[in-house]
Design goal:
Pfam family, one: MoCF_biosynth
Strand order of the largest sheet: 7-4-6-5-9-8
Shape: elongated
Largest sheet: 6 strands, mixed
Catalytic activity: adenylyl-molybdopterin + molybdate = Mo-molybdopterin + AMP + H(+)
Bound molecules: adenosine monophosphate, magnesium ion
Number of helices: 11
Structural class: alpha/beta
Cofactor: Mg(2+)
Helix content: 10-25%
Radius of gyration: 30 Å
Strand content: 25-35%
Function: Catalyzes the insertion of molybdate into adenylated molybdopterin with the concomitant release of AMP.
CATH superfamily of the largest domain: MoaB/Mog-like domain
CATH class of the largest domain: Alpha Beta
CATH topology of the largest domain: Molybdenum Cofactor Biosythetic Enzyme, Chain A
CATH architecture of the largest domain: 3-Layer(aba) Sandwich
InterPro entries: MoaB/Mog-like_dom_sf, MoaB/Mog_dom, MoeA-like, MoeA_C_domain_IV, MoeA_C_domain_IV_sf, MoeA_linker/N, MoeA_linker/N_sf
Number of strands: 26
């Protein structure tokens, strides 16, 4: 891990007023190691039943205790037979077999058919002994107790699912670090596994700073605004399935902020604040941060989200004493909170949760309009993407891109990511978009 000294020199390597987003992400990545690495196993592991495992991070590899499927079985409704019998009718393409009986899913055929026989078989039923191929029922002509079909159309082994084809006994079915998705729950159930070891959920304390902030339910006075960042942060944290700890609104004074930061550091793995890190506030906050931990103040070359503090805090009297937590001091502007959360904070939370890296999906889309963009910073504009008449993604911005315009986030369905070097975009250029929606 980078020491604070290396960290500072790393930051100093760049213009502190224009730390590229990629460099900021790299530094955060180095600091955000899985929490609990030095804890005893008990402290960071939990055993949970399948229904409670959704969206949790697996703490151990899950090794398959059985073959799935357990035995060879049919992939189709049809007739099972021995493919060797095809070769016995030299030259003749048409095969006639008598039907010896039936195999249903859960009710195997009780005997062993002869080479001149076949077994009526349904999908999922055990392939009878001696048989290796299934001819689908659509391909046969049935006449009484016999079937006729063109054997040339079938490869030996056709329409047979092999034992262990889905998951082989003794192989890891899911790896540690996996975030358990819908398909994984089904997969675990298919192995007969009722409980899995998952990591303790990351605890993330968050609060808003600002004398102008009012809570929902209070009356707005001139110059005051409702605190929306705590709600956005709460929701984004819930989506990552971390444990949110809401510490409310903190006034813009040193004593209140110090109290909040210490309390947050004591009870959480990560502390996220919003507001109070822009130019006017920086000196006051910076001094406080330095007394509580190793915090390098960043101005990231990104828009929205230029002011952003990142580092480590301690709850004790001196840095290095007591509990420690990673700290993200996000900007106050509501859109900047979301952009910095997704492009700076998210990956750190996942890594600290013990999750394997999950890069955000980036899609190329044609911009249907010119977009003004200054080279030398990464911009995360809000976009509305849709499939055009040719089946390609195209994207249009939501209009005014002020970092306080939260409605632009609700209206959008993607971020348009304009990288550091990129300048103005012409209509028809391809840009990167990151969709808001995931499937599973
Ligand atoms: P700051 O970074 O504290 O200078 O705040 C920048 C802008 O964001 C100001 O207009 C603040 O009023 C606004 N702001 C800060 N915190 C919040 C919040 N929690 N909810 C809504 N707006 C906020
Ligand atoms: Mg403020």
């Amino acid at each position: 891990m980078t020491t604070p000294k290396q960290f500072s020199s790393c930051v100093a390597h760049y213009d502190p007023n224009a730390l590229p987003v990629s460099a900021a992400q790299e530094i955060v990545r180095q600091w955000a190691v899985p929490r609990g690495r030095n804890d005893s196993d008990d402290a960071c592991l939990e055993r949970v039943s399948l229904f409670d495992a959704l969206d949790r991070v697996l703490a151990e590899d899950v090794v398959s205790p059985i073959d799935v499927p357990l035995h060879d079985n049919s992939a189709m409704d049809g007739y099972a037979f021995a493919s060797a019998s095809i070769g016995t009718r030299d030259g003749a393409s048409e095969l006639t077999l008598s039907v010896a009986g039936t195999a249903l899913a859960g009710q195997p055929f009780p005997g062993t058919p002869l080479a001149t026989q076949c077994v009526r078989i349904m999908t999922g039923a055990l392939i009878p002994p001696g048989c290796d191929t299934v001819v689908p029922q659509e391909l046969v002509t049935r006449e009484g107790d016999a079937i006729r079909f063109d054997a040339r159309t079938l490869e030996p082994g056709a329409n047979r699912r092999l034992a262990g084809e889905d998951l082989a006994c003794g192989e890891p079915a899911l790896r540690a670090g996996r975030i358990v998705r819908a398909s994984d729950l089904g997969l675990l159930a298919s192995l007969g596994i009722a409980q899995v070891a998952v990591r303790r959920r990351l605890r993330v304390a968050f609060f808003s700073t600002g004398d102008e902030l009012r809570s929902v339910g209070e009356t707005l006075t001139p110059g005051s605004v409702y605190d929306s960042n705590r709600y956005t942060l709460y929701a984004m944290l819930r989506r990552l399935n971390v444990e949110p700890v809401d510490l409310g609104i903190v006034r813009d004074d040193r004593a209140s902020l110090e109290k909040a930061l210490r309390a947050a550091t004591e009870q959480a793995d990560v502390v996220i604040s919003s507001g109070g890190v822009s130019v006017g506030d920086a000196d006051f906050t910076r001094e406080l941060m330095n007394s509580l931990g190793d915090v390098a103040f960043w101005k990231i070359a990104m828009r929205p989200g230029r002011p952003l503090a990142f580092g480590r805090l301690w709850s004790g009297p001196r840095p290095g004493d007591g509990e420690s937590a990673l700290f993200f001091g996000l900007p106050g502007n509501p859109v900047a909170v979301m952009a910095t959360f997704y492009f700076i904070v998210r990956e750190a939370l996942l890594a600290m949760s013990g999750a394997a890296r999950h890069a955000l999906p980036v899609i190329g889309a044609v911009s249907t309009q010119p977009i003004r963009k200054r080279a030398g910073r990464t911009e995360f504009q809000r976009g509305i993407a849709s499939l055009d008449a040719n089946g390609r993604w195209s994207v249009v911005t939501t209009g005014p891109q002020g970092s306080g315009v939260l409605s632009s986030m609700s209206e959008a369905n993607c971020f348009i990511v304009l990288t550091h070097e990129t300048g103005d975009i012409d209509a028809g250029d391809t840009v990167d978009i990151v969709p808001f929606d995931g499937l599973i």
